[in-house]
Amino acid sequence: KLQKVELLPVVVFCFSKKKCDSCVDGLGSLDLTSSAEKSEIHMFCERALGRLNPGDRKLPQVCRVRELCGRGLGVHHAGLLPIVKEIVEMLFCRGLLKVLFSTETFAMGVNAPARTVVFHSIRKHDGRSFRTLLSGEYTQMAGRAGRRGLDTVGTVIIMAPDDKVPEEAELRTLITGKATMLESQFRLRYNMIVNLLRVEDLSVEDMLKRSFAELHAQRAMKGHGELLHAGERLLRRITALAAAHAGRPCGCPCGCVFGRPEVEEYYELVVAVQHLTTQVHAAVMQSPGAKQALSPGRVVLLRSLHGVPEPAVVLRMGSAPTPPVGGGRTLLRAPSGDDQGTKQLYVLALHRGAGPEAKMKVPTETATAQQERMKASTMSMGMEMKRKDDLDMGLGKLGRVGSRGVWGTASEPPPAVPLPHYASVGEVGYALLLVPSEDILSITKSKLKVDAGEVLERLDLAAVARTVAGLQRQLDEPLEALSNQELKFNDVDAVEAYQVRQQYLSEMAKFQCHQCPKLPEQYALIAKRRQLAERVRELQYRMSDQALQQMPDYHMRVRVLQEMGYIDDEKVVQMKGRVMCELNSCDELLGSEMIFAGHLTDLCPEEAIALLSALIFQEKTDNEPVLPTKLMEACDKVRHLARACGERQLQCGLEISPEDYCREVLKFGLTEVVYEWAKGTPFADICMLTDVPEGSIVRTIVRLDEMCREVKDAARLMGDSTLFLKMQTASELIKRDIVFSASLYVSKA
Description:
Blueprint: E1 10-13, H1 17-25, H2 35-49, H3 54-57, H4 60-70, E2 73-76, H5 82-93, E3 99-102, E4 116-119, E5 123-125, E6 130-132, H6 135-142, E7 155-158, H7 168-176, H8 190-198, H9 204-209, H10 215-219, H11 221-245, H12 261-285, H13 288-293, E8 298-303, E9 309-318, E10 344-350, H14 357-360, H15 367-395, E11 421-425, E12 428-436, E13 440-447, H16 452-457, H17 461-474, H18 484-487, H19 492-509, H20 519-542, H21 551-563, H22 575-580, H23 588-597, H24 605-616, H25 629-651, H26 658-665, H27 671-678, H28 683-686, H29 694-718, H30 721-734
Parallel strand pairs: 1-3, 1-4, 2-3, 4-7
Antiparallel strand pairs: 5-6, 8-9, 8-13, 9-10, 10-12, 11-12
């Protein structure tokens, strides 16, 4: 059909080698080439394959692909021999192949556009699971459709196998989705570390900073540097201010002086109490005892604006979802989104020092405005009472809302002034607040007789004065908190943390500065200095080498190298480390250990190169190799050595399973094949020993030749002439025939 509508040539993308082969085989005797094209294809193949020996020209894969090309069909994947892949690529670029079945690698690097691109499926296996193609992958492959100067448009067809048509949303995301974000694949390797330790001009830290993985972090360093300099300047000013005031009387009746060490200790206890409060808050506030205890008149310890605990008396339960009047909040912080829906309380708290300037400027109401507000409040109360009476008719009389620790409702009258409200009675400061239950540090056994309506709803000064005086009398003796038995919660961890917190609160009450009117000033200075110092330390860490993402991995790998003798305690590279630097084609740690353990010494060149193939080959195969006894024993020794290397890395902190490490770095699937190839067995015969594709066999043997050169260089460093000659001989044994045939791109075909 594509030929009839002139949509050839076409590239059909399949996402497995087997699928490519099965699809092209399914075309049977389809012939798409003319006599002239057949002649040109024949002549090209004759010239390209003429450099091979007669036996290699008759390999099944060579004959099969040549026959397909003669009919205008082609297949392209990693399982093909390199020279066969090059023949297919060149014929397709010349327009002699009309249909090409390929894996997605064909879309990378090879400039071979087509008139049409067909997707056999839009799902692929990425090594872990099946997934839909990413938008970037689709664009890369679909971009092959349309030839420059020949086609005005390119055509892309997505097949629906078994009539399973993709969803419209899935296709829209595939075609118009955003490109995949680039992710750094930079990984530390042992030979990289050792090589960098040998170079004085470039450190490992510099290499890590220059990696793409650290790009965004390094860009943020400029802003961090400015913040760090500003923070250091401010910290020096605060420290100088504290030093200038050290030893001076603070002017309080207690005779305290600035800069006393006990205020620092007091600060540490406050921080510990706040940390423990976050741990026990849920258990305490959900306990039956707390729900009963938090009724009007209960004395509590409250976290204040300055961080110093202050006594407070509960006036009324607040409505959790309703925002507080005037933006009410705790003395310490503004309400966050997390506070919505939490339990809140109206309290009157003692307050040392002035409130925040913004909070002290409470707008005054005109008499008319106050009358209107009180009238609206009265009408609201009347409507609520009417609704309550209506409910009482059907449900019976309910108890007064909030009278027994029941959390308040929206029917409660509003406060007389916007909250928070800061004022004083005589020389004693107080604050009316709406606070979340998280700010309650302790529920005490003490209770006061308070008239919440007079204090909160009418702000009667006489009632306020009585309440403040009652709170002050409570400070004559240490406030005793309710025990966990009285609160009725039994969680073991919460009970332990609660008891420790109460112990800290008792210790705080013993400090002379605990009731000092000037404590908030001294505490605020210490808190500011501590918080700023912590921020400066954090910025210094972020700008240091220790904040690099791969620094923990670097330190663990250095420890492995030190314990295994590649570098000494001063990070000076030893002989084993110099040998490791020569190995780049395989796992350098296991390869170095094999050399120094002498596992290659007693083997002949054919056996040695076969053993090294286990470090190079990385594909899966179901075939079990049949090996000589001596070579089999050597394989067992290498397995044991790999497990030992994995265990040593695990001991040094790397997240490596010794068994997984052994399976990952050692694969003996081509050991027999390489052994037979080194002995001179024809390529056609060694292909019968395994189910691994011919292309994978060639790639493994070519990489083995590179590894032979690396081991030769390592032997030269060690002064081991026997190993040097053995690797030289092994390299000569495997360099022959089709495996090392010259590329058609660098020679005339």
